[in-house]
Design brief:
By secondary structure, the chain is α/β, with parallel strands linked by helices. Helix content is 31%, strand content 19%. The longest helix has 17 residues. It is globular.
Length: 197
């Protein structure tokens, strides 16, 4: 196939999967994927231990553009799309670790990260009550919910060509497609914008 000889645009493939999930899963339909930057980071080793993916909010609590810490005001570096519009979230996948997980785990990881996006879609994360505001009171229950949603998406019969590549591990994809490429984004830094004297 021509596509195989040209390589695999990993981040575009992941964007398409995320877009399909956000259209078909009610709990994710508040997400506008055109405002989510999708990138990948290369892990230093192929070990299965460590992060598979991460969701970075590009706003502060309640969608605020600035925050105060120790009497100083900060904002975040902006990430812009090709048209100059600001992204509200950065979704990164860690390769090859993510690709070397099993198929079901990959789908659960995708849903897990998308669930972190606030229902207000304001650039902040979804916040639960209590000390563990990112994963509710139970990481186990949070992951079980992500697994149910991943199963629900598969039950809606998405096109096989959309996700078939996720059935392969990194080395298998390299053999099949050659180059694996995509967009890379640096984690945005805090920028001090004022200081109280």
């Amino acid at each position: 196939m021509k596509q195989e000889s040209q390589g695999l645009n990993f981040t575009e493939k992941m964007r398409l999967i995320c877009a399909d999930m956000t259209q078909k899963i009610a709990a994710l339909q508040h997400i506008q994927m055109e405002r989510v930057a999708v990138g990948f980071c290369q892990t230093r080793s192929s070990s299965k231990y460590g992060h598979y993916a991460s969701l970075t909010p590009l706003r502060f609590e309640n969608g605020a553009l600035t925050t105060h810490r120790n009497g100083r005001e900060y904002t975040l570096q902006r990430i812009l799309d090709p048209n100059g519009k600001e992204y509200l979230y950065l979704l990164n996948f860690y390769v090859p670790r993510f690709l070397n997980s099993d198929f079901r785990e990959k789908l659960i990881t995708i849903v897990h990260e998308l669930l972190h996006i606030s229902e207000k879609f304001d650039g902040d994360i979804r916040r639960f009550e209590g000390r563990c505001y990112a994963h509710s009171g139970s990481q186990k229950n949070y992951d079980a919910y992500a697994e149910r949603l991943a199963s629900l998406w598969l039950a809606k019969d998405p096109p096989l060509e959309l996700y078939e590549f996720l059935r392969f591990h990194f080395d298998e994809l390299r053999t099949r497609y050659g180059d694996i490429y995509g967009r890379k984004y640096s984690i945005p830094k805090l920028i001090r914008i004022s200081e109280n004297h």
